[in-house]
Each structure stands twice: as structure tokens, then as C-alpha cells.
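Researcher: Structure for this, please.
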Amino acid sequence: MLKQIDSLYKYLMIMLLVIYLINSIYLHEVTITFTAITLVILLEFIRHRHHIKQLTYSQLSIIGVVLLAGIAGIIYLLVMIQIFLEPIGLPQKMESVLFFACIIVGIYILWYFIGKLFGRALEKP
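Model: Predicted structure, C-alpha cell format:
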């Protein structure tokens, strides 16, 4: 079963992207969005299962803590931006663009940091 998922990984990701785009344009259902995101995360875990098996429990826990702290930091940053932008009175579209930009930059930085941490953990001493 896992080998089939590995071979069809690209098509599964495209299908989930199409579902997410259709949902975000037409349906606006939060449960479909969270389901698609959860499935993408599970697919990534399945794809990298061989690398994850090489890590020790302490390395996995450090990566998990960094992920949780990064997500909490992104949420904190968004709340602070909303608090400071409210008195300025920017248009709704401008606020949405700023939020989207902050989310993209935050996720990129977190992804880069986890990639560096994950790469160092897999290096042989």
C-alpha cells in the first residue's frame, strides 16, 4: 500500500491541490480545507518515512517542538499585526495581502529551518 502511495504521490498531491482550490473558490468549507491540509501532511510523512526512521526520539522531539513553536510564532505574529493595523484603517484587501504575505514568509522560514535541522540530524558523524 505504501509503495502505491509513493508511486502515485505526485497525482495525489495534484488532486488535493485541485480539491483545495475548488473549495476555496466555490464552497468555502473549513472542514474540507483542514482535511486537505491534514492529508498533505500525512502524505509527506509517508514519503519521508525512511528518513524519519533514522532519527532518534530526541531528534524527533526537537523537530516537533520547533514545528509547534514556529506555528505558535506565526499565529502570534498575525495577531500582533491585526492589533497594530486596526487603528490605521487599511482596506480589507490590503490587510488580507499583508496576512497572506506574513503567513507565506513564516512558513518558508519554518520550512527552511526544519530542513536544515532535519538535514543535520541525518548526517552521519
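Researcher: Any notable elements?
Model: Helices lie at 2-7, 9-27, 30-47, 49-53, 57-85, 92-122. The two ends are 34 Å apart (CA to CA).
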